[in-house]
């Protein structure tokens, strides 16, 4: 296993090879230039008849001029490689390239006919004094990607010192006096070339090793991401990838993967909960039907019994009291069963969500104003934190708030409840918080508090919070139970932000 980790991958080898190749190309050109310069310098140094005119000087100037032309062409290609794809930024980019590139006096993008599409020129004087233009023109390889016309070219005009041409002209006037070089000069030349070649080889090897190390860091993170993808394919929705402290493309990919897994997990949980609620709704519908059917006969039979006894001549005080007590018990229990049937029926017949644009803070304030019965039972405190445009079903969301506020009132008895209704905004969510100052919810209960038929109160059915969560999920939101900082329970509802709600009609 350790040897497998140490063995370089194909990706690492490709990066190392690319860096070595990128290093060898300019280094090979430099080796060739060094060989040429060595030969010329030795010829000048070992010629005993060198006077004022040197036959090799024009050739040396020619080589230098060719090297400079190659340098200018490479600089022009460097400007071309970074050419932006936005035509609006082309002029600014060319001006920046002229400012940062030595001896570049003018840069222009031309179409196929030679017309100027964008250009920039240096405004200051040339630091080397008098100069002559040396243009270098390169074709744009993919003009469509850069939104340029076909046949577009980049023309860069560089400054060549005027004295360069003056020296070249003077050198051409000099005569060339040479004698045949001896074996010593050839040996010296070969030794210089070999030393320079060894130096270039060491440099290329260092570039390859640096590329392998860089590739190893990248492939290690990519391997972690690949393992996480495999775990996700096997159904593990808890997998996460550590992006580290980097800010490159691999780190961005890791963060995007974590975000995708989190969204898939939340969607899965939402779907599972809604399917579970749908099953419980079917159970509630059947229970309501099965319980409701015998209630009416029970009531009628007992009413007939009371009527028959009232008309009988064999009444006794003891049996009268017994029958009255039994009647109170039957009516109370039947009433309890009827309320239970009604709650089951309401739970089984939750309407579909029909959303409309609304501002969440205004909706909460309207809820407080139009709920005098709740305001009489509790002190409702509203805190808003910015506009929160959402899409919601007003009737169903009022039911959510009513249920949460009533739970807060029940939790605060016998004291008068203080209920805090907070509206805040995050980057992409509107958050509605309903908190009380009661005893709070134990942590072990919070994980089950939204399950149907789970309740901590003797008189509760455990359907209220299940209805609340289903309505919130149908709005595309989330709800979580927690603790209020001042003591008590807190319910946070996060709804996705929508466009701004329509403005109210102007009063006339």
UniProtKB/TrEMBL annotation:
Enzyme Commission code(s) on record: 2.7.13.3
EC top class, as a word: transferase
GO MF annotation, one: phosphorelay sensor kinase activity
Domain HAMP residues, every copy: 216-269
InterPro entries on file: HAMP_dom, HATPase_C_sf, HATPase_dom, His_kinase_dom, HisK_dim/P_dom, HisK_dim/P_sf, Sig_transdc_His_kin-like_C, TCS_sensor_his_kinase
Localization per record: Membrane
Residue ranges of domain Histidine kinase in the record: 286-499
Main location: membrane
Catalytic activity reported: ATP + protein L-histidine = ADP + protein N-phospho-L-histidine
Transmembrane intervals: 195-215
Record GO cellular component, one term: membrane
Keywords: Kinase, Membrane, Phosphoprotein, Transferase, Transmembrane, Transmembrane helix, Two-component regulatory system
Name recorded for this polypeptide: histidine kinase
Native source species: Anaeromyxobacter diazotrophicus
């Amino acid at each position: 296993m350790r040897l497998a980790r140490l063995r370089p991958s194909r990706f690492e080898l490709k990066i190392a090879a690319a860096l070595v190749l990128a290093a060898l190309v300019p280094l090979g050109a430099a080796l060739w230039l060094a060989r040429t310069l060595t030969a010329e310098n030795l010829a000048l140094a070992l010629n005993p008849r060198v006077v004022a005119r040197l036959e090799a000087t024009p050739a040396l100037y020619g080589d230098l001029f060719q090297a400079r032309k190659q340098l200018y062409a490479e600089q022009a290609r460097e400007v071309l490689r970074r050419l932006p794809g936005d035509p609006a930024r082309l002029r600014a980019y060319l001006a920046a390239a002229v400012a940062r590139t030595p001896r570049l006096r003018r840069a222009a993008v031309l179409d196929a006919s030679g017309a100027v599409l964008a250009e920039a020129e240096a405004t200051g004087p040339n630091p080397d004094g008098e100069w002559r233009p040396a243009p270098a023109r390169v074709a744009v390889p993919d003009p469509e990607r850069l939104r340029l016309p076909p046949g577009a070219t980049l023309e860069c005009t560089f400054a060549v010192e005027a004295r360069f041409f003056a020296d070249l002209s003077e050198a051409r006037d000099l005569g060339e006096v040479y004698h045949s070089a001896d074996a010593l000069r050839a040996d010296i030349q070969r030794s210089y070339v070999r030393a320079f070649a060894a130096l270039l080889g060491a440099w290329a090897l260092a570039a390859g090793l640096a590329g392998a190390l860089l590739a190893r860091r990248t492939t290690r993170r990519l391997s972690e991401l690949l393992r996480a993808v495999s775990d996700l394919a096997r159904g593990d929705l808890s997998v996460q990838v550590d992006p580290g402290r980097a800010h490159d493309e691999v780190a961005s990919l890791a963060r995007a993967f974590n975000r995708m897994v989190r969204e898939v997990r939340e969607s899965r949980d939402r779907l599972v909960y809604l399917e579970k609620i749908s099953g419980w709704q079917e159970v509630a519908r059947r229970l309501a039907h099965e319980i409701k059917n015998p209630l009416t006969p029970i009531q009628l039979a007992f009413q007939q019994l009371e009527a028959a006894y009232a008309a009988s001549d064999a009444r006794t005080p003891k049996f009268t009291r017994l029958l009255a007590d039994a009647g109170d018990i039957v009516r109370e229990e039947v009433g309890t069963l009827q309320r239970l049937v009604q709650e089951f029926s309401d739970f089984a017949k939750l309407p579909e969500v029909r959303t409309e644009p609304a501002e969440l803070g205004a909706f909460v304030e309207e809820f407080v104003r139009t709920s005098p019965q709740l305001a009489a039972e509790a002190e409702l405190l509203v805190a808003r934190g910015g506009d929160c445009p959402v899409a919601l079903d007003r009737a169903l969301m009022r039911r959510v708030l009513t249920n949460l506020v009533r739970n807060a009132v029940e939790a605060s008895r016998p004291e008068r409840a203080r209920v805090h209704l907070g509206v805040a905004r995050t980057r992409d969510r509107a958050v509605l918080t309903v908190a009380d100052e009661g005893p709070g919810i134990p942590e072990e209960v919070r994980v089950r508090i939204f399950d149907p038929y789970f309740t901590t109160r003797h008189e509760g059915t455990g359907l209220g919070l299940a209805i609340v969560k289903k309505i919130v999920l149908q709005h595309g939101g989330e709800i979580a139970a927690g603790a209020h900082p001042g003591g008590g329970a807190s319910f946070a509802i996060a709804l996705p932000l929508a466009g701004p709600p329509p403005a109210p009609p102007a009063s006339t």
